[in-house]
Every structure is written in C-alpha cells, then in structure tokens.
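>> Question from a student workshop board

For tomorrow's exercise we were told to take the sequence and the ligand below, predict the bound structure, and bring the output to class. My setup keeps failing. Could a helper post the expected result so I can at least see what it should look like? The ligand is zinc ion.
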Amino acid sequence: MKTVKCPRCGSAAEYSPANAFRPFCSERCKLIDLGDWAEGRYAIPVSTPPEPEELEAALEEAFAADSLSGASGSHEDDHLH
Ligand SMILES: [Zn+2]
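>> Workshop helper replied:
Here is what the output should look like for this input. Compare the format with yours to find the bug.
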C-alpha cells in the first residue's frame, strides 16, 4: 500500500483510489486545506487598479452630477430631504 504524508497534518495517508481524500489522510484534513485556499491564505495578493477609462467615466459622472445640482440653483434645499 502506497502512503504519502498528509499535506495538512503529516500523518500517513493511503494514496490509492480507496482513499477518496488523497493526498490527505481524511476528509477533515482535506476540508481544512480547501478552506485555507478558499480564505485566500495561500493566494498571491493581486492589486487591480481601476482601468483609466473607468476612472475617467466616474469622474465625468461626478462632474455631471455636480453641474446638475449647481444648475438647480435655488432648489438646493431639495437635496436635504
Ligand atoms: Zn491529515
């Protein structure tokens, strides 16, 4: 019987079709390990700066909203409700 070291706890784990959780020793270890992945503990942090076009659109939107509220002039109080 071929065994491998469980990547999670280091115990001997049977490495065969009989072990559905290989290379882990048990379902528990497999789930814990998958949980780690899901929580991003192993993930490489990636920074995704906003696309220049998106940024520009957002700025235009903000500017348009500004000029609209400015154009309403005497109705400024309407925004306080
Ligand atoms: Zn284990």
